[in-house]
């Protein structure tokens, strides 16, 4: 017997994609488990493991997202065939080798998958991997009975899949990807970027033995930032690894503070004072919290964005947080000289083009959300060659 499990957050999405396609593929003895009103996908999945653990007829548990449309008529046959090998504990469609963070896609990708952003193609085929993406996870009966999801460290909706993959491998079983036809109707992006950072820090502490997230606040209580990913040692004779752009009185620990008042040495400057004291393609990450609204719109904003593009390594992220216009937080402060809406970022991706060529370096927009009704949070990445 093969069981299915779905953690449902949006009933309409579930009834449109996952549920009807599961119904078409299900066999007469298949079990469909669905869990709602969850604050943690790990807890929801653990309830399913507990329910099925004593079922001697269980051949596999297929966990999938509510927005996954199953289209492979041979899905159950493929799962059975893969899990006949008792060395396999977990099966997916895309994943990677050499995984060192929750950003598994930055490692060596394996597998393939159709989704709303296009066809993710790492070559297809069947391969052993370090971790799989949680859009679909087929667990062996052994995995169901012996390996639980880590609900204490991964309380929300990020990291459960990569962590579970590592847990399976630590317990001595293999994690693989194989070719299964499906369509993932994903919205893309991280969703809650802060939760992703916290989950990644938990992953680093658990599996990479690095420092966990440390929350902090400004001493005036007005900072809207969130956790740093921990200290990074920066040799004095080399360019910094990470830049906190306009970090103010309390920049992120271990990050270089490019700030006209609180920066040190050559880094005591306004962001518009270019070039920054860093070589091209030398910075791994840039973060800016409530600073870009202090950069005048026009060529000065473009200058800062282009300099960030120049200094970042290919694939490096630039996280920007600004107040959303026309909220009062955006316009009340007399030092705010530019205003931002979600579409502002599309001029830097080429999705919206100006009438003239202003020399804008183009980015890839990974995510943009409105947080708490008033704050724009965006992550852009410098394209890889």
The protein's oligomeric status is single chain
Unreliable runs? 210-237
Number of helices: 8
Q: Would you list the SSEs in sequence order as H and E?
A: EHEHEEHEEEEEEEHHEEHEEEHEHEE
Overall tally of structural domains = 2
Question: How would you characterize the overall build of this protein?
Answer:
With 385 residues, the protein is an alpha/beta fold. It has helices at 11-25, 41-52, 75-83, 141-146, 160-170, 193-208, 299-311, 328-331; strands at residues 2-8, 31-36, 60-64, 68-70, 88-92, 94-97, 108-115, 118-121, 127-129, 131-132, 136-139, 174-177, 182-184, 242-245, 256-258, 285-289, 317-323, 364-371, 375-381. It folds into two domains: 2-190, Spore Coat Polysaccharide Biosynthesis Protein SpsA, Chain A; 214-381, Vaccinia Virus protein VP39 (Rossmann fold, 3-Layer(aba) Sandwich). The chain has eight helices and 19 strands. The strands form three sheets. The chain has a seven-stranded mixed sheet with strand order 2-1-3-11-5-12-9, with helices on both faces. Strand 18 (364-371) and strand 19 form a beta hairpin. The chain is elongated.
Q: In summary, what is this structure?
A:
The protein is α/β, with parallel strands linked by helices and about 375 residues long.
Task: Quickly list its features.
2 domains, Spore Coat Polysaccharide Biosynthesis Protein SpsA, Chain A, six-stranded mixed sheet, seven-stranded mixed sheet, 385 residues, alpha/beta, Rossmann fold
């Amino acid at each position: 017997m093969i069981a299915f499990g779905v953690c449902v957050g949006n009933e309409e999405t579930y009834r449109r994609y996952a549920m009807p396609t599961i119904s078409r593929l299900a066999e007469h003895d298949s079990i469909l488990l669905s869990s709602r009103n969850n604050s943690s996908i790990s807890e929801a999945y653990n309830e399913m493991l507990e329910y099925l653990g004593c079922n001697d007829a269980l051949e596999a548990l297929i966990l999938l997202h509510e927005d996954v449309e199953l289209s492979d008529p041979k899905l159950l046959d493929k799962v059975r065939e893969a899990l006949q090998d008792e060395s396999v504990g977990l099966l997916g469609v895309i994943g990677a080798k050499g995984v060192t963070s929750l950003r598994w896609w930055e490692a060596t990708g394996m597998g393939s998958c159709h989704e709303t952003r296009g066809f993710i193609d790492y070559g297809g085929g069947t391969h052993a991997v370090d971790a799989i993406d949680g859009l679909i996870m087929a667990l062996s009966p052994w995995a169901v009975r012996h390996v639980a999801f880590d609900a204490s460290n991964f309380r929300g909706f990020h990291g459960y899949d990569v962590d579970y993959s590592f847990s399976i491998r630590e317990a001595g079983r293999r994690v693989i990807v194989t070719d299964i036809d499906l369509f993932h109707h994903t919205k893309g992006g991280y969703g809650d970027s802060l939760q992703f950072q916290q989950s990644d820090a938990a992953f680093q502490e658990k599996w990479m033995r690095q420092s966990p997230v440390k929350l902090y606040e400004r001493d005036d209580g007005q900072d809207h930032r969130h956790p740093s990913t921990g200290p990074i040692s920066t040799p004095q004779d080399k360019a910094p690894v990470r830049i906190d752009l306009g970090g103010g009185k309390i920049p992120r620990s271990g990050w270089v503070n490019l700030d006209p008042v609180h920066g040190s040495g050559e880094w005591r400057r306004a962001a518009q004072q270019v070039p920054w004291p860093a070589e091209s393609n030398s910075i791994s990450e840039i973060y800016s919290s409530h600073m870009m609204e202090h950069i005048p719109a026009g060529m000065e904003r473009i200058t800062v964005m282009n300099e960030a593009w120049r200094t970042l390594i290919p694939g490096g992220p630039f996280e920007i947080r600004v107040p959303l216009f026309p909220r009062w937080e955006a316009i009340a402060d007399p030092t705010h000289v530019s205003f931002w809406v979600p579409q502002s970022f599309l001029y830097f991706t080429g999705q919206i083009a100006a009438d003239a060529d202003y020399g804008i370096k183009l980015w890839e927009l990974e995510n943009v959300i409105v947080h708490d009704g008033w704050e724009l949070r965006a992550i852009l990445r410098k394209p890889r060659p």
